[in-house]
Structure formats: C-alpha cells, structure tokens
Design goal:
The chain is mainly alpha-helical. About 70% of the residues lie in helices and about 0% in strands. Helix 2 packs antiparallel against helix 15 (about 355-370) and helix 8 (about 185-205) runs parallel beside helix 10 (about 235-250). Keywords: Membrane, Transmembrane, Transmembrane helix.
C-alpha cells in the first residue's frame, strides 16, 4: 500500500457542528433498556422490602451493566461482577467516610474528603486509560464515590447504602446476561461483521491508504479478534471469515487459521502506561491537580458540594481528550447542567412519591445511554437530575441548584484551562514516545537473530504489541493535530513514516508462510527504514 501524496494531519474538528450534533441512537436501544432495567428491578425490590427512598441508591450498583456492553457473554458476567464489586466497595468506603465526617464537618474535614475523592479519581482515571477501556470510562466510579460521601453525611445509614448498591449490582448481572438466552453469539457476530465491513469499505473506497481510515480498520479488526478470544471462538467459521478478510486487507493469501493473540495482559498494559509521557499518566496528572484545586476552592468559598466541582473536572478530562473536544465537552457539560437543573426543579416541585421516582430514574438511565455518545450536552441533561435525585438532601432546592451550577462552572473552567496550562506540550512528548514505541516494536520483530516462524507464540506476541503501539501512536497523533496544528503539520511526515513502517512490518508477517520466518531481504529492507526513521526523530521537543 502506498502513502498518499503530500500527507497532512486531519483538520481540527468544527466546534459548532459538534456542539449541535444530533444523537444517533441506532444500535443503542437494547443497551439503553438494559441500563434502565438494571436500576428499576432492584430498586423496586428494595421499595417493596420497605427501604423506600434508599431504593433510589440502587442506581450506584446498576452502573455496572454499562461496562459489560459489547463483551461476549462468556466474559461479560465476570466484567460486570468485577465492576459491581468495585462500585459497591467504593460506595462502602466513601459512605463510611461521609458518615464519619457528618453534616457539620470542619474546614479540615471537608478538605480531607476532597483529598480522598481526588486520590480515588486519580487511581481510576489512570487504570481505565492504561487499560484503554474507553467509554463509559472512570466517570461512574467517581460519581458513586461522590454520591456515597454525601448521602451518608445527611442521614443515610452506610449499611443501607451498601445494601442498595449491592442490589443494583445483582440487577446489573441479571439484566446484562439475560440476552444470552436468545442471542448467545450476538457480540461476536456484531464485532466480526463490523470489522469485515470496515475492511470492504476501505478496499472499495480507499486504495490510497489514508492513515486515518487504515487506523479505523485496524481498531475494528483488533476489537473483533479480542471479542472472539473472549468468547473462545477463534477456531470457528466466524473466525475463518475474519481471517480471510484480514488477509484481503493486507493483500495476502490466507493460510491455515492462526488467529492473532488477544489483548496484552493487565500487568503489561499497566506497566506500559507507567511512563511520564504516556497518555494515561498525562491525563491522570491533569485530573488530580485540577480536581484537588476545584474541590479546595469549593470548600474555601463555602459552596457546600465540592464533589460536584470534582465531577466537573473529571467529566472533561477523564479520557484525555484534545483541547477542542475537551472544550466541547466542557461546553456540553455547562449547557446540559443548566437544562438538567430545570428538569430537576420540575421533578422536585412535583414532589413525586418513591415509586414514580423509580420509574423516572429508570427513564433517565435509558435516556443517558441513548444519547451519551451522540451529544454529551443532551446526556448531561439527564445525568444532572439523576445525580441530584440520588444525592440531594430533602430540604429545599435553591441552595443545591445554585451550588450545582457554580461548582460545575468552577470544575469545567479549571478543566478546560488545565488542557492549555498543565504540561501544555505534553501532546508532543506523547506522540514522540508513542512513535518510539512503534519503532522499538518493529525492531523486536525484525531482529536479525530472530529465526522463529511468524506464527510462533513469541513472534505473535511481538506482532500484537506492535499493533497496540500503532493504535496508541495514531491516537496521540490525532490529539496533537487538534491541540497544535502547526507543530503537527511539521511532525506529520515523520509520524506517517513510522506508522507506515509499522503497518508494512505487520503486512510482511501476514504475507509470509506462517511456518517460516520473515525473509532476510524483507527484514533487511524494513530494518533500514526503521534506522532512517529513528535518525529523523533526533530533533528534540
């Protein structure tokens, strides 16, 4: 595949167009309904058992169902269970902290709560980004901590909180696994079909090998193989179809089925992220500093709910967006908060009994899942009343509404500023670090001492690591193009050359007889290109 002439970085996204984007709900109806039922069923059970308003806190455990979506059922139960255990543990720890501090906390105790919330946010942000889990991201863990730390300060017993969260967790597991009864291979079929469609679209419309489109094909194909591995379906007819499709992408003749390895281990991903220039580390630094400052200023100014300021920062920064998308997320957060507060005020004035409130929160959960990908402002319109209904004392709404708006404004303003002020050129170092990882992974595969067949377990592991490095490099390049277009334009030819070598190395492996090693001539040619690319990268930031 040839490189297109005069390659350049993608243009900055249009802020106004993205702000008013209409949510696309295609394919999201079933997950949205599951999100609603994962709360409604356990909440109703708690209500009938006499827990009444505490039943609304089942939503904290109900969030677990969101993290199992698109995962095959063979592992989905484990993902939901682990997530649920973490959510219930978070609710317990921060619930007991809130009960210990109490409603009449001192200035120092309020700062202590801010510090503990900030540390928790930092830990979960780092882990989620290091693992490359993507949406729904760390937010619901932080939201659970914030709600738990507040409701127990205002009369909810920690034991009742834990019981409600645990009930929601059980509901998540039941609802999340239910589709296995009528469509047991649904996730595998959906992921494989999407990957093969991406390959066909690329081959039909994109023979010039546009890097962004190539990255999309690689991402969808890697996801499909990961799903098949999770489902233990790598030796099926479905896997054979994906195998043939991937060879078509690389213009290679398919040999016997030998699937790529699954995602790197948890330890491997965490270790790789432990670098000062990694995406996960930079994102965590920004979140921790900004959340601590937002929470401390909220306490200093006596706004009453520093957790809302912390949530505002986490929502903007949690997945390390570029400056344009980060600013868009902040603007969406503010607009959605204003609309959401109006919805909350209406619900408060209606003074609904608990049973109708359970229905309302279930509907809010459905609406959030339907809209959160397409337009975040619309989603926040539903997230805000959901959080307010769970975590607002029943004393009046003027103060909570005022504090919610002011603290959201504070958190968003600091988060947007952080992308420009805190390590402002981090995108440069992250891109260079990611490109260096690609070249290092190529070197490992092209090592002249390596005479193993390209399908040997060790070589497959190196090929898998190269693919993951390429995906990280493409993500870092996209962020750089948005953060600093002029610098990215100068750096782009070097980055594109690195990625081309990486993909050409993978293509060479796909075209090689799986029972033998890379040919010496191919290895020599690619190694020479790696050396040139390493020399071209000697210009420092």
């Amino acid at each position: 595949m040839s490189v297109p002439p005069d390659p350049g970085p993608p243009p900055r996204p249009a802020f106004v167009r993205l702000f008013f984007a209409v949510p696309d709900i295609r394919g999201r109806t079933a997950p949205a309904i599951r999100a609603g039922l994962a709360f409604a069923l356990p909440a109703l059970a708690l209500y009938l058992a006499g827990f009444e308003r505490d039943a609304l806190l089942a939503a904290l455990g109900g969030f677990a169902v969101l993290y199992g979506e698109k995962r095959p059922y063979r592992v989905r139960w484990r993902v939901i269970t682990i997530t649920a255990v973490v959510l219930v543990t978070v609710a317990a720890l921060y619930g007991y902290l809130g009960a210990w501090v109490g409603a009449d906390a001192t200035f120092a105790e309020d700062l202590l709560v801010v510090g503990v919330l900030t540390v928790g946010a930092g830990v979960v942000v780092f882990i989620v980004n290091a693992m490359r889990h993507g949406p729904p991201g760390p937010f619901f863990f932080v939201l659970t901590a914030c709600v738990a730390s507040v409701v127990t300060r205002h009369g909810v017993a920690p034991d009742s909180l834990i019981l409600a969260a645990a009930a929601g967790a059980i509901g998540s597991l039941v609802v999340g696994m239910a589709p296995a009864l009528w469509h047991p291979q649904g996730p595998e079929i959906a992921a494989t079909d999407a990957a093969m469609a991406a390959v066909e679209e690329y081959l039909d419309d994109n023979r010039a090998a546009d890097p962004a489109r190539r990255h999309g094909v690689a991402l969808s194909t890697l996801h499909a193989w990961t799903v098949l591995h999770d489902a233990a379906q790598t030796d099926t007819a479905l896997a054979q179809e994906l195998w043939v499709s991937q060879h078509r992408f690389h213009d290679a003749r398919p040999g016997p089925l030998a699937p790529p390895l699954p995602r790197p281990s948890v330890g491997h991903r965490l270790r790789n992220a432990c670098h000062h220039d990694s995406h996960a580390t930079v994102t965590t630094i920004r979140v921790v500093i900004t959340a601590a400052l937002a929470g401390a200023l909220s306490v200093w100014w006596g706004l009453g709910r520093p957790d809302w300021a912390i949530l505002g920062t986490v929502l903007v920064l949690q997945l390390g967006p570029d400056r344009i998308r980060g600013s868009l997320r902040g603007a969406h957060r503010l607009a959605g908060t204003v609309l959401g507060l109006a919805v909350f005020a209406l619900l408060f004035l209606l003074d609904l009994p608990v049973l109708p409130l359970i229905v309302v929160i279930a509907v809010l959960n459905v609406a959030i899942e339907l809209t959160i990908v397409g337009n975040y402002a619309v989603a926040v319109t539903f997230i805000t009343p959901l959080a307010m209904l769970m975590g607002t004392p029943e004393a009046g709404i003027e103060g909570p509404i005022r504090d919610r708006f002011l603290e959201t404004l504070l958190g968003v303003a600091l988060a947007v500023a952080a992308m420009w002020v805190l390590v402002p050129r981090a995108h440069r170092r992250t891109l260079r670090h990611s490109d260096a990882e690609v070249l290092a992974a190529c070197d490992t595969i092209l090592d002249g001492e390596n005479t193993r067949p390209v399908s040997a377990p060790k070589v497959l592991s190196h090929r898998r690591d190269l693919q993951w490095s390429l995906l990280a490099a493409e993500m870092a390049a996209t962020d750089s193009a948005s953060d600093e277009p002029h610098w990215a334009a100068r750096e782009w030819p070097k980055h594109l050359a690195v990625c081309q070598i990486g993909y050409d190395t993978l293509t060479a492996c796909w075209r090689t007889d799986p029972t033998g090693p890379l040919k010496a001539g191919t290895r020599h040619e690619l190694s020479a290109r790696v050396s040139v690319a390493q020399t071209n990268r000697t210009t420092h930031i």
